[in-house]
């Protein structure tokens, strides 16, 4: 049983935001070279905020529109 909405629901991952995500931010921490890249989902309102966070931390990142075939915790967005 899920306690709340999460990635698989396709919602923005900014704190306390429940808006539908429309962007996927792929990032990595260069201080952990063996770690895989991570992804965050973002709504339009929080896209710049999350980008600024990555810039401040010096993390390389890429922003792309969330597409129907993107994987969200094992489910593609076309499955929803």
Automatic annotation (TrEMBL):
It comes from the Bacteria. This is Uncharacterized protein. It comes from Schaalia turicensis ACS-279-V-Col4. The lineage of its organism: Bacteria, Bacillati, Actinomycetota, Actinomycetes, Actinomycetales.
């Amino acid at each position: 049983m899920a306690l709340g909405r999460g990635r698989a629901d396709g919602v923005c991952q900014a704190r306390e935001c429940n808006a539908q995500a429309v962007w996927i931010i792929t990032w990595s921490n260069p201080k952990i070279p063996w770690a895989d890249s991570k992804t965050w989902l973002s709504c339009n309102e929080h896209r710049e905020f999350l980008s600024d966070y990555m810039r401040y931390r010096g993390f390389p990142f890429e922003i792309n529109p969330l597409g129907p075939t993107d994987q969200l915790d094992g489910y593609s967005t076309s499955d929803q």
